[in-house]
Amino acid sequence: MTVQPAGGPASSGLADVIDTILDKGLVIDAYARVSLIGIEVLAVEARVVVSSVDTYLRFAEAMSHLEEEMEERAPAEQVEREPLRGEIEREPQERELTGTAEELQAEELRPEQAEERARVRRRRREED
Amino acid sequence: MAAASYVYGIVPADVEVAPGTLGVGEPPGEVSLVTFGKIAALVSEVDVERGPLGRMEDLRTHQRLLDETAAEVPVLPFRFGAVMTGPGAVADELLAPHHDEFASALDKLEGRIEYVVKGRYVEREILREILAENEEAARLREAIRGRDEAVTRNERMRLGEIVEQAISAKREEDTREVIDALAPLCVAVSEREPTHERDAAYVALLVEDERQDDLRRAVEELGERVRDRIEVRLLGPLAPYDFTPPE
């Protein structure tokens, strides 16, 4: 459970940014816009869920690993799930196979401007 | 240089931009306003001849400016990459024809802000669940166990397919639970398409400013409740990317 600090998404991952600003928001009519966008650094495909052969094989592989872990432990231990949590993220296999997505996820926004004052705010109305 | 206007979003006309606020591109232009009637566009100059935008830094600049703006004033965020030929085009081709629609959308967003709740299944736990619930999965697991991948490819494909389908079904259920838990605190809720194979829920929420703390607490409680199988994250406050009117 992570709750981002109030006052800005300063530490959200790049994948979150991509999901948001490449997928959501208003779009200018095609005729009116100038085309100069190249998403040069982004493996945008990485954010799309695809039911691919790779996904299936990866799940199957994870299942077979899961089995080995379960066998190493006595059956009575099966209820004790807690100590194992978190380890799976470090399995080289998973890291390799989901590399791009995980890298994007791990990419941190630089918080350099987090402390600065609001850049866009309401003007004081002198006439009020 | 061939200058064009990069558009970040639409705000009410009565806002100001802090001098020296820099936008996307290299070198970055200063962010300014193009005003028309009751609305204004947040823009900065970009050089069309300098090649494509889209560096990570540009994406971050775009989102940071909009999210910071949303914390202060209502804003209609644009998707990354909106570039028009110049301030004149922004006024004449964007603001003028859509003035009333944008103005009323901004009114509706006054005092409201977006959050996004993301749930991701803990892989080990979700696989255990599926094994326990699905006999075919258990049987296939036996079949591939200790055997070469090339020889058991069919079984692996089928097992993977079962896992994928089971997760889809669980995602639907868990998304429902997230929405049921949080919708009462929100003005509006919008589901996002999953972007990861282990996504458990991906939901955008529009909340009143004064309910933000309630929402954070509710998400925290939800996260505690499901923590064995789902990692819950709350992103925000964000510009209302998911609650802008359709183009």
From TrEMBL, chain A:
One of its GO terms (molecular function) is structural molecule activity. Pfam families: Gas_vesicle. It comes from the Bacteria. Residues 68-128 are annotated as: Disordered. Residues 68-97, 107-118 have a biased composition (Basic and acidic residues). Belongs to the gas vesicle GvpA family. HAMAP family: Gas_vesicle_A (MF_00576). This is Gas vesicle protein A. The gene is gvpA.
Automatic annotation (TrEMBL), chain B:
It comes from the Bacteria. Its main location: other. InterPro entries: GvpL/GvpF (IPR009430). Keywords: Gas vesicle. It is found in: Gas vesicle. Belongs to the gas vesicle GvpF/GvpL family. This is Gas vesicle protein GvpFL.
